[in-house]
Amino acid sequence: MKTTTMMMRPCFCIPAVYRRPPRRGLFGEVMTGLVTEHFKFVGAHEWSIPIFLFRYHADVEKYLFDLARDPARVRAVFGRFGSDFLGVSLDSDGAVIRLIVGEAKWRETLNSSTVSNLMLGDWKRNRNTGERVRKGGVWFEINRDLPVPHGVRQLQRLLFECDRDGHAAAIVSLDKALALRNPVPIPRTNLIMIAGDGAATREPRTALIGWEETPEEYTSSNDLQVVELIRYRRDASKREARSQRGKPPSD
Q: Can you give the residue ranges of every domain in the chain?
């Protein structure tokens, strides 16, 4: 397992409609793709993101269609079903030889209790026993994911639609992996990215998820990469006051 922790300053040049909380789902997929292509992850594989999966996000597709014709139509967007992100490693012939499949999560404040609920699931009470138990969570979802998730089918279709000649070898290799009978396995790396504002008591370069050893909650046999994206919050009250006056805060 490998962990990468980054600090990020808020960007004030993005149109206001995209700075609203409902856009964070798209932010997660795009940011996960950027860090995958530009940072060395576990295994030192060369990753590429040929196309983003939000083109198969039905709610976002409709929202962007409406927004292009009516800029005032701002609303919430629900998350993509299935994997949040998918990238590939290609051989010299362009065939897919490894997948990287990711989950991207945003939380307002990343403290220990928030991260525990995110990774282990919220507490629920068993109706029969009255006992409080964890339900869901990132560990649960990533451990039980299929070796070749549904997003691979979506990626294959997008490549066929947009660049069937340039990615012919990749399309064929994905088709072999997706076969119901005698599929050709493709090795996989799992990626978890959590993003948000750091807690006020957080020390710099402090990981929220232990990295010295693989967490015991992670039971998958695939390699694991964790990325923590912490938003920089210095002088937050000053930033807020200046923003309310209509002047972008300077860093």
A: 2-244
- The list of the chain residues with pLDDT below 50 reads 5-22, 235-251
- The encoded tokens of residue 85 equal 């992100």
Q: Which residues pair with 85 in a beta bridge?
A: 102
Three-state DSSP string of 66-120: HHHHCCCCCCCCCCCCCCCEEEEEECCCCCEEEEEEEEEEEEEEECHHHHHHHHH
Is the alpha carbon torsion for 81, 87, 88, 94 positive or negative?
A: positive
What pLDDT does 24 receive?
56
Can you tell me the distance from the alpha carbon of 186 to that of 177, in angstroms, rounded to the nearest whole number? 7
The model's pTM is: 0.75
CB within 8 Å of 238: residues ≥ 6 apart: 249
Question: Which residues contact residue 16 at a Cβ distance below 8 angstroms, ignoring those fewer than 6 apart?
Answer: none
Q: What is the pLDDT of residue 18?
A: 43
Provide the token pair at 219: 């039971």
Question: Which of 193, 151, 166 has the alpha carbon at shortest distance from 5?
Answer: 193
Q: How far is 40 from 248, CA to CA, in rounded Å?
A: 33
Q: Is 43 left (phi over 0), alpha (psi -120 to 50) or beta?
A: left
Q: What percent of the chain has pLDDT over 90?
A: 39
pLDDT at 239: 39
Closest CA to 226 of 204, 210, 249: 210
